[in-house]
Amino acid sequence: MAIATRKGNFGVQKTRKKRSSAVLRPNRSRSGDVFIWFMLAIFGFFFAFPLIFAINNAFKPLNELFLFPPRLFVINPTLNNLQDLFIIMSRSWVTFSRYVFNTVFITAAGTIGHLLVASMGAYAVSKYEFPGSKMFFNLVIITLMFSGFVTAIPNFLVLAGLGWIDTYWAVIIPHFAFPMGFFLMKQFIDTVPQSLIESAKIDGAKEWMIYTRIVIPLIKPAMLTGMIFSVQALWNNPQANLIYTEQLKTLPFALSQIVGSPHTPNIARAGVGAAVTLVMMVVPITLFVVAQSNILKTMANSGIKE
Amino acid sequence: MASVTATAPTSTPFSRYMARKRVQRAYMWNEMKKHKTLYLFLAPYAILFTVFVVAPVGVSIFFSFTYFNVLEAPRFIGFQNYLNLFLADDVFLIAIRNTLILALITGPVGYIFAFLFAWFINELPRYLRAFVTLVFYAPTIAGAAFLIWSLIFSGDAFGYLNAFLMQFGIINEPVLWLSNPQFMMPVIIVVVLWMSLGAGFLAFIAGLSTIDESLYEAGLMDGVKNRWQELWFITLPNMQGMLMFGAVMAIMASFAVGEVTQGLAGFPSTDYAVHTVVNHLVDYGAIRFEMGYASAIATILFLAMIYTKSLVGKFIMKIGR
Questions:
Q1: Which of A54, B26, B67, B170 has an alpha carbon within 20 to 30 A of A123's alpha carbon?
Q2: Chain A closest CA to B155's CA: distance in Å?
Q3: Chain B: nearest CA to A125, how far in angstroms?
């Protein structure tokens, strides 16, 4: 029976197959595709160019850095700049590895704590309506617009009162309240079907069980996205005003000491400066690349729709 | 007859109001007791959020009505800070003008770019999406890498743009891109747009990929002819949450431009040509330690953002209707 129908519809099947392999969806035009590729190519160049330039600069010997006319690509790549950077760093009073540890510790602790605290709160606000829940979420949305300048002065006073100034906690704990992660997770948990939670409840699961066994596995994409924003915020954060003991200071601060301030660059160390730009750039970008593939994967696997 | 109703205490408007309140309060209390586990879930975040985000804003607004130099106790001076800002501080008016120019250009353009690119990327074959997303998002995540633009726009002949233009004979001598007021604003706009594909862009990409495929099939049945119609009638109405989020991010980024101007054009910039409200805030908060005055600047910035957000929100709710 099945064979007969297949044979009978052979022609129809064939044309249909051909069409679906030619274009993504039926209502797509060739010229539209060309336009999209063209736009992406032009703007992609605009977006990629400065970073390609920065990466190449890090491998240029000094005579190429001050070449006229300047070239985009390096001719004789050298690792001298990176070497110089590590030599300067290892000669410093506080070792390079200590700065790296400080930065990694602050970034990791801040991110993990933030994801845990924010996802718990987001679950409560997203899946239930209780007195104050709506108001709280609206407050979070408004605070998404804060750029840190508004809260800087009172924050310092609070942290000083708690005695946390000049410890890691001065940076880590306030970061737990990062509004962006809370917002993103609440929005994602909204898409978790209510029926899933109800049925777990009928099976006798308590809130904590639902949160750990159902919600967390389903919101991995949001967790990873939250992680990226959190790392981005902490990694480039010099926090010079909250931590002043040299041994506790972070990488961006140490590097800015070597290169000089942006507007009065240390010309003799132009090569090292380029290397610093590369080093600071590599970690968040690498992390993004790794997490991005994970996001796409989890998105494809978490295909439960209401 | 009227005296009878007046003596019955349960039926005066006021007592009826009180009774209703009492019932409401009892209901509220019951609701709260019923959800007490949820309050425990929310408590860690809510406490930190209140202490480190909400309360500081309140405190900052309070400081804006005082003279406060950190060393002495704040002294209440009413609206004096605000009056000084608008009537006596010429630089602040320049800062407002520059911030508005930046916000009105980079905000909408950056927002529309973020959505268009996200949408274009979503139209690409699956294997290309991750790479192209990275190309567009890298400038934002690379943090201080925007300083590379100071080499590109450098005012001497070694500056990349100058050398390029001189080689092709378009200009004869180097242009001071970052210290000639004529060119500073356009240069800053270019760099801000370069960095503008932030969180909103990622939200758009995530949102586009999670829209139910069957909606498009249904749209096809209903006579959607091309991808632009699909975008307007199906995609956009299903992405209002993401669109609002992107708008909030765009407003934040475009009003809070300050780091870029300071890094590229210096502080203060020539003729205050790209001096923004945030630069002004840093000037008074971190250099002159006039915290009351700085808080007043912060409050104005904050109110402008909230107002813009409510305006944009109303517009977004009308999309696809």
A1: B26
A2: 13
A3: 8
Contact A84, A59 (CB under 8 A): no
Question: Which of A39, A141, A285 lies at the smallest CB-CB distance from B120?
Answer: A39
What are the pLDDT digits (tens) for A157-185?
Answer: 888 888 888 888 888 998 999 888 888 78
Please tell me whether the interface predicted TM-score (ipTM) of this complex is above 0.90: no
Distances (CA, A) of A245 to A162, A239, B310: 18, 11, 43
Comparing CB atoms, the residue among B35, B53, B216 nearest residue A130 is B35
Name the fold adopted by A84-301: MetI-like fold (1.10.3720)
- Kindly report, as residue ranges, where domains of CATH 1.10.3720.10 are found in chain A: 84-301
Q: Structural domains in chain B?
A: 2-76 (no CATH), 80-316 (1.10.3720.10)
A147 contacts in chain B (CB < 8 Å): 252, 255-256, 278
Contact check, Cβ <8 Å, A211/B291 = no
Say if residue A263's pLDDT is above 60. no
CA nearest to A303 within chain B: B210
The number of residues in chain B equals 321
Q: What is the dihedral of CA A133, A136, A138, A139, to 10 degrees?
A: 180
